[in-house]
Amino acid sequence: MTSAPEPDRTDVDTRSEVAQALGKEVWPADRDTLRQLAVDNAASDRVLRILDSLPAGRTFDNVQEVAVVAGIASAHPEGPGAD
User: Fold this and answer.
1) pTM score > 0.70 for this model?
2) Which residues on adjacent β-strands are paired with residue 29?
3) Most CB within 10 Å of its CB: which of 45, 69, 80, 81?
4) Bridge-partner residues for 31, per DSSP?
């Protein structure tokens, strides 16, 4: 069995920062809703740039989906059962 490569620490930190800025109660949401919530939560410019890069008109179900679409390399699932 081959394990997935370790994610880059910067990617993990970036995904965590995005998750913290958005919280758990917003989903599902579109780019504009996510960005407004991030602004309301005083998110960093880096998080706002990531959210600005998302396609308009698409609804996201969770931070994992945001990370994948935004190209954050560590967006693959982690933890038990994540092959």
Assistant:
1) yes
2) 60
3) 69
4) none
